[in-house]
Amino acid sequence: xxxxxxxxxxxxxxxxxxxxxxxxxxxxxxxxxxxxxxxxxxxxxxxxxxxxxxxxxxxxxxxxxxxxxxxxxxxxxxxxxxxxxxxxxxxxxxxxxxxxxxxxxxxxxxxxxxxxxxxxxxxxxxxxxxxxxxxxxxxxxxxxxxxxxxxxxxxxxxxxxxxxxxxxxxxxxxxxxxxxxxxxxxxxxxxxxxxxxxxxxxxxxxxxxxxxxxxxxxxxxxxxxxxxxxxxxxxxxxxxxxxxxxxxxxxxxxxxxxxxxxxxxxxxxxxxxxxxxxxxxxxxxxxxxxxxxxxxxxxxxxxxxxxxxxxxxxxxxxxxxxxxxxxxxxxxxxxxxxxxxxxxxxxxxxxxxxxxxxxxxxxxxxxxxxxxxxxxxxxxxxxxxxxxxxxxxxxxxxxxxxxxxxxxxxxxxxxxxxx
Length: 419
Description:
mainly alpha, three-stranded antiparallel sheet, globular
């Protein structure tokens, strides 16, 4: 039974107008939704009052929950909330009210698009159609869909604002202007990513019957040489420094330490760590099943130190939960999996504690570090590619540049100066 299951809506809110609000049918469910996820009684009361206040306000406007849009939410948060006196006990902070509404609409099963700040309804509908295309037609991963939607959202807002989206009205100069402004000063890889997102969107519109050939041709080509730079990697001393930064006596510290060992010892991507399930671990055989990019499934050996860190977390740090993911949230919302942001932040916070924040800005450096150590140790590139789960051996060749002893053996002598 949840810790705060004794909370009753009528006890939380004594205002007479609540009994007449449309929230009545959802009141008990919303309180249960919050308490089930570990929110404190004070937070539950705050969120409950905020949602009840919002529902009472839209009821006075003669609107139903199905008619809610993002501009309407902003009107409540920015126009009504700071000045009204209809709910004396409601906390009038925009952050709390928006968080309360987000949880409420998630509970109702509504799409999160109306709660994305600054997205007009016409663009929100366009993004929803594009998202269905990416998932159902292209079969792309959630992380890829998120990146492409973010770039397309910026483009549509920049070009159309609150007006209806009319791709047929665009000209190549609009595309060039946006890309040049949006990517000014960014790395070539980021510039290329923006172009790929817009190209994907224009191809989607072309499949719907809108001519976009000229718009696709206007996308700038990016000079990006894959082997032009050396991969960044951590030294053994930096690795020890980072691993020592975790408080392995706390539950969160045990979780974050185990996450980092998965990244460092196995070269996993952060999404692969977040999606790791209990059923993916074969303790007897010492094997791990990885669900990677492109819905690919691979089986890799589970190193002893990695398995010990995971086992220590499962036995002594993991909170009671019905989730099958290995790593879960330790703060509200409870009984939820650890998202990719938690995996990334586990590394970033540890790097800040030990003074490596300039070196460790993300999780991919661990993947580079593991591959480089294997290459320098003489491991064949085919084995490195198999462990990293590269589709092509060419992707692994970047790590040949860090194997300096081998490069010295094959390098030709520098020609001497003629006298």
